Amino acid sequence: MVKTVLFVHGTGVRKLSYESSAARIAKGLHSINPGIRLEPCLWGDAHGARLGMNGASIPEFKAPVAAVSEETQMEALWELLAQDALFELRELAASRKPGGLVAPHDKIDKAKLLTQLAALETNATLLTRIQERALTAQWQQAVRAVASSQAAKDAVEAASRVDATLRLGLSRAVVASLQARLLEDNMAVLPAPLRDELVKKGVDELGGGELNLFTDWVTSKLKGLGLRWATAKAKRERDALYTAAAPTAGDVLLYQARGAGIRDFIAERVGQCGDDVVIFAHSLGGIACVDLLIERSLPQVKALVTVGSQAPFMYEIGALTSLAYEEQLPPHFPSKWINFYDCNDLLSYMASKVFAGRATDHEVRSGLPFPMSHSAYWDMPELWQTLAPHLK
């Protein structure tokens, strides 16, 4: 019976964001086995190319680009909003120039809408959901940023009348602004279902209306954009060195140069966790744990679970510290290696084709754009459903 799960974090993580992720893992573990003890392995604060197999580790490598689905369009829109939370409002302002006179009651509705928008900062319905994740301060900052923005004022002024499309744009801008703040603070991102729930609740609090997530102007713009987005994702072989340009590459580069200290720290924590340990390793933590378990025999580690990890890719290009390309995993490496990847997470890779017979891959879909998708694994019910039989 599994007694302990040791959580090894990834690149760029420090105490605040580690605690946020650990809380989500603890919740997931409790849902499938309340008896498991979660132990920390916070190494960040203290320690903080040719494709040899023709891209076998890369999800959707050279995948054909199908017709652009509504799901792809939505992902493309949220990717744009991740870069610019006010994008949709600017587009609304540019595409809905009013003509003729505005009725007095429409002017009143517009003024009321801006007041309602500012009031989202202290709206009890929304704060109830926000407070569950301890994000009140970030939410209030996001509302203030959007409500005081010229883009919001221009979008409202340009509208001939207040309708669901305008309310949706304002609500989505607030949630996108919240997500941007979470990324800046290196905190857990919003799962797609919660993100969409907040958007819909925001629309309701702004006056409601018939909600169509894709108005004509959004669809027309995103058809081409979504196709280009999907095409770029399918052509990731051009960017084999993509990880070197990631925003949190510092930990990765440090690990590659002087990773022994991180591995020693993880090994010490393993030794303090008893005889039945499962390691949960995210991102760079997955690389470090694979290296460690190759270099040393740690029989108390019964299974390795990697999420969003680059270890298979590092092996494929000959950059895995502990194992040269074409060398095999040693017999003492844990017999159970479960690897999760998300095709929207450009820092996740498949292990089963690279380490045939030694790893099992499971695809999950967050519905979030990169880089938010890289931090979303612990909120996915399908991940915990997959792990449940292995954590009894």
Question: What keywords describe this structure?
Answer:
alpha/beta; single chain; 48% helix
Textual characterization of the structure:
The chain folds into two domains: 184 residues, Alpha/Beta hydrolase fold, catalytic domain (Rossmann fold, 3-Layer(aba) Sandwich); 126 residues, no CATH class. The longest helix is centred in the middle third of the chain and has 21 residues. With 392 residues, it is α/β, with parallel strands linked by helices. The radius of gyration is 23 Å and the shape is elongated. The chain is 48% helix and 8% strand. It is built from 15 helices and six strands. The chain starts with a strand and ends in a 5-residue tail after the last helix. Helix 12 packs across helix 13. It has a six-stranded parallel β-sheet, sandwiched between helices. Strand 4, helix 14 and strand 5 form a beta-alpha-beta unit. About 4% of the residues have low confidence. InterPro entries: AB_hydrolase_fold (IPR029058). This is Alpha/beta hydrolase.
